Amino acid sequence: MSYRIFTDATSDLPAKFAEQLRVTVLPMGFTMEEKEYFYIPGHSDMPIETFFAKMREGVGVTTAQVNAFAFLEAFEPVLKGGEDILYIGFSSKLSGTVQSAVHAAEELKIKYPERKVVVIDSCSASLGEGLLVYYAARKQELSLDDLAKWVEENKLRFVHWFTVDDLVYLKRGGRISGATAAIATILNIKPVMHVDNEGYLVAVEKVQGRKKSLRALFEHMEKTVDTSVTDTVFIGNCNAKADANYVAGLVHEKYPNMMIHVDDIGTSIGAHSGPGTIALFFVGSER
C-alpha cells in the first residue's frame, strides 16, 4: 500500500525539496500587530524578510502550533483515498504539535480502521527537522513500517548547531534574564546552542565575537560529522545570508563533495531566536 509523508512548517523544508519528494508541509501560524498569518516555506502570508524587519523594529510576535483540527483536515482526504500517512513532527519538548497529531490519528483510526497514521516526534527543529524529513523522503521505496523504523533509529543522528547575533530576542521570550542579555551584549558574548537528545534547545558554550561563534558551529561539525552518510548539509539563517554563506564556505572547503543548501529559518523558530540567527545541520555519529 502507498503512503504520504507529512511534516510541519517548523521543519523549514525548502519548497523545492517538498515538491520533488512529494512531502506535504502543514502551515504554522503566528500573530503580529494583532493579525494572524500562516507560514509555509516559500508560500508565507508575510514575506520572511518583512517578518524579520518587523522584529528588528521591535514588533512583538507570538507563534501557534498546528492543532488537531488542522491535522484532521489534512489527513482525512489521504486516508479516504486509500493511502497511509507518516508524519514527522516538530520536537515535542518545544511544541504541542506532535501531541495534536496523535489526537487526530487516534480519532481517524476509529473512522478508518484499515488505514494507518504513524506519528513520529523528530526531537528536532527548523532545518534539522527538515533535513531528517529530506533524508527520509529519499527512502520512499521502503514500506511505511520500515521507513518509520529508520526514522526512529536515526533521528538522533541529525545534529543541530545554532548561534544568535542579539540576545534581546531570547530575553523577550523569557529564555534568558535581562541582566544576562545586557552583560553579554556589552562583552560581545555569543551563545552556541544545540538541540539535545530529548529535543530541547540548550546552550553549550559562550564565545566572544560573531566570527568566533560562526566558526564554532563548523568546529562542532568537524567533531561528530559522519562523512559516510552526510551527502547534504542544510544551513539556516534569519535574515543573515552573508554569515550563512561564510559558514557554507568553511564546510565546502573541508568537505567539497557535500551538497550545501542555504535557506531561511522560518517564523516558528525565528520568532524566538531573532534576526541574525545562524544554524548548521548535518548527520553525525551523535548529537
Order of helices and strands: EHEEEHEHEHEHHEHHEEHEHEHE
Count of discrete domains: 2
Q: What is the SS-derived class?
A: alpha/beta
Number of E-state strands: 13
Mean pLDDT: 94
Envelope shape: globular
The main β sheet shows up as: 6 strands, mixed
Low-confidence stretches: none
For the largest sheet, list the strands in their spatial order.
Answer: 10-9-8-13-11-12
Summarize the structure.
This protein is 41% helix and 26% strand. It has 287 residues and is an alpha/beta fold.
Describe the protein in words.
The chain is α/β, with parallel strands linked by helices and 287 residues long. The chain has 2 domains: 153 residues, Rossmann fold; 127 residues, Hypothetical Protein Tm841, Chain: A,domain 3 (2-Layer Sandwich). The protein is 41% helix and 26% strand. It contains 11 helices and 13 strands. It has a 6-stranded mixed sheet, with helices on both faces. Strand 6, helix 4 and strand 7 form a beta-alpha-beta unit. Helix 3 crosses helix 4 and helix 9 runs parallel beside helix 10. It is globular and about 60 Å long. The chain starts with a strand and ends with a strand.
Primary descriptors:
287 residues; alpha/beta; Rossmann fold; Hypothetical Protein Tm841, Chain: A,domain 3; 2 domains; 6-stranded mixed beta sheet; 4-stranded parallel beta sheet; 11 helices; 13 strands; 41% helix
Q: In terms of topology, how is this protein built?
A:
Elements: E1 3-8, H1 15-20, E2 23-26, E3 28-32, E4 35-39, H2 48-56, E5 61-64, H3 68-80, E6 84-89, H4 97-111, E7 117-121, H5 126-137, H6 144-154, E8 158-163, H7 168-172, H8 178-187, E9 189-195, E10 201-208, H9 210-224, E11 232-237, H10 241-254, E12 259-264, H11 267-273, E13 278-283
Parallel strand pairs: 1-2, 1-6, 6-7, 11-12
Antiparallel strand pairs: 3-4, 3-5, 8-9, 8-13, 9-10, 11-13
